[in-house]
TrEMBL record:
PANTHER family tied to this protein: GPI MANNOSYLTRANSFERASE 2 (PTHR12468:SF2)
Organism: Actinacidiphila oryziradicis
Keyword Zinc-finger set for record: no
Organism phylogeny: Bacteria, Bacillati, Actinomycetota, Actinomycetes, Kitasatosporales
Membrane topology classification: Multi-pass membrane protein
Protein name: Glycosyltransferase RgtA/B/C/D-like domain-containing protein
Pathway of action: Glycolipid biosynthesis; glycosylphosphatidylinositol-anchor biosynthesis
A GO CC annotation given for this chain: membrane
Amino acid sequence: MTTIKTVDTPRVPLPSQRVRAALRDAAPALLGYAAVRAVGVVVLIYWGHARGQSWLRKLSTIWDANWYANVAVHGYGHSLPAMSNGHGPTVHSNMAFFPLYPAAIRVVRAITPFDTHSSALAIAWVASLAAAWGIFAVGSWCYGRQVGIAATLLWGVLPQAVIESLAYTEPLFTALAAWSLYAVLTRRWLWAGVLCALAGLTRPSGAAVLAAVGFAVGAELLRLRRLGQPAKAWRPCLGLLIGAAGLFGYVGWVDLRLGRWDGYLAVQHQWNSNFDFGHSTARHIAALLLHSTPSPLGGIVVTLILCAAAVLFALSSANRQPLPLLVYSAMLMVMAVGDTGFFNSRSRFLLPAFPLLLPLATGLTRVRSRASRVVLLSSATIASALYGGFLVYVYNHAL
């Protein structure tokens, strides 16, 4: 009697199993991130209580948060506001605020007991964890797990990290951008395109994600051509087309709604948000450095963040960071420095530029003493929490 040997084929993990495994791998980073941000939120709660203000209301309605809630409830306007004596609009157009976040607010409000503002804050907090996971994934892929953990923690203790705990779009945008970049690095082109499109529906800085995807697709097409495999080019090309649909789709919709080809640019112009190649930024920094009166703390911190970003970008380039990450960071820096809007918002515009943290994260992992690392991160956590409280409750300027 002949026996037939059977060969066991390796079992392919189910998607849910892969997600659970990835989540276990990222757990130290996510728990650490949650811990440092919890310190910041506790400070915000205590500060609000001391001032007799509702911390929940404050975090969910401050500055831009109220605009997004308004869009979620009332939708977009149909025209540009009238100008007042030629000096500016009496009110601003809410079409400056991109649609994905308000749409998500409406969905969460419809399926949960939360009101509009609580829904907005809940989305931001969940998105900040998704962003932390994406930062860990990118950092781990580039330089190893320890660097990924360090980068995630550093993102949570940045001076402007309080934005990650407000009902703002930066947490959602950073999550979509990080995972789109991870998909690019791992050549998951269709996923990269879908996430890029969603990022483009979240903030105008979706242009940075689109540029990164575009450069990566160009490099991939050259690689496939060298390998003599042009038939495989359809995936990266389709991913790029999908990615462009988000940003250009919304801008085109605004143009159609206003009945003019430059509708979105007109909306931005009324918000005094134009591109001047850094002239406005240079003027603000010069005033801070040369003015005889004491400079406001917020302006000084923003200036230091801009300078640090330039240094970190140089280090990232010297370390031969993957091209998509460099393109993404460079675009965010150009958009932040070149904008004519509120000077204090420039640090917020750079919050999603997490690849700039990878050189710092690499350096942190090389500190031999664990006690030294704990002291450094603890000090940064406390400083970030206190500065965050100052920005939310004391600093009377747009974030």
